[in-house]
Amino acid sequence: MGTVVMYNVVSVDGFVADEHDQPGPLFDWYTNGDVPLDESGEMTVSRTSYDYTRPYWDQIGATIVGRHVFDLTDGWGGKPPGGVDHVVVVTHRPAPQGWDPEAPYYFVGGVEEAMARAQKLAGDRVVEVAAGDVGGQLLAAGLVDEVRMDVVPVVFGSGKRFFGSVHAQHLLEDPDVVIQGERVLHLRYRVRR
To answer: What's a BP term from Gene Ontology annotated to this protein (predicted)?
Structure first.
């Protein structure tokens, strides 16, 4: 099985979006450089951020998201983001009416089922878990191996929390990656077992 990584871009005070689900300036670093991050050329980052982010993205075999994120993004139009092969959506509702059954999306009822499906789909590649409520549930269930965050220098004050509604203490190891990009700090922590 591959490594399970909880990931998102986050404000310095721990939010992945404001109270209206808007990321505000959190994604500005995706367009403040001159190195294309993907084939679209729409995201251009600094060389430092590219050298950290692109190899990580290339390792991802499946991503787990909640239905809320799926709905906000309209399922990325049926094409998983960043070149990911598969998306597993945690939801108690069926796929949207008219959803392309050939799209590499899987709708499951709980986080444990989502993890089992994602690990099967990813094989020995990384399973990425979107931070927020679903990520927090998987962390609380002991199913996350590492936490990656791209910290942007902005304070939201309130909004959607990186760790969702986690109310218990979870220890992480010291960061084993700390990379300063332009308007972003890339961090990686292993989850202490």
So the answer is: riboflavin biosynthetic process
